Amino acid sequence: MSPADEPQEHLSVVYVEDDERLARLTAQYLRSHRVEVTIVDRGDLALSEVLRARPDVVLLDLMLPGADGHEVCRRLRERVSVPIIMLTARGEEADRVMGLEGGADDYMSKPFSTRELLARIRAHARRARGKTGPATPRIELGALVVDGATMTATLHGTRLALTTHEFALLKVLAERAGRVLAREQLLELLHGSAEDAFDRSIDVHISRLRHKLESDPKNPQYLKTIRGVGYMLVPEER
Questions:
Q1: What is the pLDDT of residue 189?
Q2: SS3 for 198?
Q3: What integer pLDDT is reported at residue 163 of this predicted model?
Q4: Domain end point (choices 63, 98, 128)
Q5: Which one, 44, 79, 121, 126, has the greatest CB density within 10 A?
Q6: Pairing between strand 223-226 and 230-233?
Q7: pTM
């Protein structure tokens, strides 16, 4: 039996979309594949519904009445770490980067494949539930501690407020601390994220992670950029 044929566990999403027909057809497909879908047609109603439903993934349109997708994303990130996939007709790189910098984990341009959307939902849900691979032991790198079992990271005893994708990225880097990883290697190691839609996504996630990890992101102590090669996590010495 191939992975695609294996039984899938039940998932839930909140789908924020004001296009009634698109929302209905997409929800119909997802529900036929064991995904519970709650549709919200206004941006200003999204946060309360996400807090109520506690979904595995949020699907978020960009152009919405009440509050646009970027504002909704920022509000969600202030309260929850649920994976956010932005769905929008805007396909320019600047819009994708803005969405990721605002806290989104992934990005799909309309028209999108519902089959690919389902795959991304499952991938992000697996990562959020800590089921992307074998259990990882606690990694201690000086003052930085990355715990794969609890999906948490602390620095000097303070817990870092990471999204699921940021944690996955930090975990990959921590497991290979001291090694330079190219974008292509990171994309491969973060299998299932579907982030290879454009390479800049890795740069944006690295930047977001660096701002949470470093006291001075412009002069990073831990997460180094090796120009022309890639990125490396350099733990401080105790």
A1: 78
A2: coil
A3: 83
A4: 128
A5: 121
A6: antiparallel
A7: 0.62
Are 60 and 72 contacting, i.e. CB atoms less than 8 angstroms apart? yes
Alpha helices in the chain (DSSP H): 20-31, 46-53, 69-79, 93-101, 114-128, 164-175, 183-189, 200-213
- Mean pLDDT in order along the chain per 10 residues (238 residues): 52 96 96 95 96 94 93 90 86 71 85 92 83 65 87 91 87 90 82 46 87 92 90 76
Residue with tokens 């028209």: 111
Residue 13's CATH number: 3.40.50.2300
Q: What is the pLDDT of residue 131?
A: 53
Residues 6 or more apart whose Cβ sits within 8 Å of residue 122: 8, 11, 192
Name the helix (H) or strand (E) containing 17. none
Cα distance between the two ends of the chain:
48
Q: Do 84 and 164 have their domain in common?
A: no
Distance CA 231, CA 172 (A): 11
Do residue 9 and residue 122 come from a single domain? yes
One-letter identity of residue 94 = A
Please tell me the total count of domains within the chain: 2
Tell which phi-psi region holds residue 189, choosing left (phi > 0), alpha (psi between -120 and 50) or beta: alpha
Residue type, 159: R
